[in-house]
Design brief:
Strand content: 15-25%
Number of domains: 2
Structural class: alpha/beta
Radius of gyration: 21 Å
Shape: globular
Largest sheet: 7 strands, parallel
Order of helices and strands: HEHEHEHEHEHEHEHEHEHEHEHEHEHH
CATH topology of the largest domain: Rossmann fold
Distance between the termini: 18 Å
Amino acid sequence: MSVSDRKNRRSGVLICGAYGMRNAGDEAVLDAILASMRAIDPEMPVTVLSRDPAGTEAVHGARALHTFNLFGLLRVMRRSALYLNGGGSLIQDVTSSRSIWYYLFTLFAAHLCGCRVMMYGCGVGPVSRPFNRRLAARVINRCVDAVTLREEESLDTLKALGVDKPEIQVAAEPALCLPPAPEAELDALWERLRLDRNERYFCFCPRRWAGMEEKLPLFAAAAEHVWRTHGLTPLLLSVNQNQDGGTVEALRALLGEEIPCRAVTEAMRVPELIGLLSRMEGVLAMRLHVLIFAASQAVPMAGVCYDPKVKGFLDYIGERNYVEYERLETAEQLCGLIDAAADSDRARLAEARDRLLSRERRNGETARRLLEEVGA
């Protein structure tokens, strides 16, 4: 059998990311990528690498393999037309060097197995360790066909690493294109969460992070400001109960009985979470995907940037209403962000959202072109 014949037998997509770990943001990204692949071809075989294959298959309706099933991974790579790395920030060594080594290995292996290789709607960096920087540049330059990025800061990171061989485009976060749940489902969610349809809410989404014990009273003072100055009920949201539930409960305890508030810590489907945020008067969040979902619904927002990816996203969409976490020292800083969000022009936010959605389509268009080149 000729090389050409073997090539033409390839079909389908293998998707790798931080999936199956009960992180609402990562699962939203997977939802968006799967929707994009199904728009290209509803019958196209898709396999997802996941820490929880059974859960991923049940929730997303796609075949899944365990992330560390290397024999299974290589078997699927040998017959897949396209390997997608992303979205999310996979090429970074803040989490650990082992993490970036794993994702770089998958890029190398996919290329070696004959796949087209794409980094899809991703963030890149920080990559701090000299060896990791050299390795990342070498693997991406040699093994990746195309890169689409979710913001411009990642482009700067790639340039600093010396990555210049793949096709690189700045697109947008894939999860921006996800719709909220229908209104009837949101009404049912309101009943389930015991929220009052007659109340107007302002969402606070803190997360567990180093030094949060000292900063949490600042969030409590900001929540009181929302109630006393703007007449809005603070809604305290955890999107990762394992990590952030205790932080939300501690914030509620600080508010006491005098300030009415609602705490939402139960798991929600991604469309429900997007719909919940769509009904907020504003959002103050540390979690990146809460800000992304707020942007997708043109909801006024303010950020507390604990990680460069949060600042990078807000800069990219032109919303500089944020404070960097390490520089957060007073409640007045948060109150100023809230006041600015309350004065936001929703029409302007909707225009910015529409521009982002137009850019996001570059992700799927690039994947489609790579598949067409293979003849899948």
